[in-house]
Amino acid sequence: MPPIKILVVFGTRPEAIKMAPVVQELKRYPEEFTCSVAVTAQHREMLDQVLKLFAIEPQYDLNIMRPRQTLEEVTTRALEGLTRVLDQERPDMVLVHGDTTTTFVAALAAFYRQVAVGHVEAGLRTRDKYAPYPEEMNRRLTGALADLHFAPTAQARQNLLEEAVPADRIYVTGNTVIDALKATVREDYRFEDPLLAGLDPKKRLILVTAHRRENWGRPLEDIFWALREIKGLYADVEIVFPVHKNPRVRSRAREILEGCRGIHLIEPLDYEPFVNLMARSYLVLTDSGGLQEEAPALGKPVLVLREVTERPEAVRAGTVCLVGTDREQIVAKVRELLDDRREYLKMAQAVNPYGDGLASRRIRGFLRYYFGLSIVRPAEFVPPGEGEKVPI
Question: Please, what are the domains in the chain?
Answer without folding.
Answer: 4-175+355-370 (3.40.50.2000), 194-348 (3.40.50.2000)
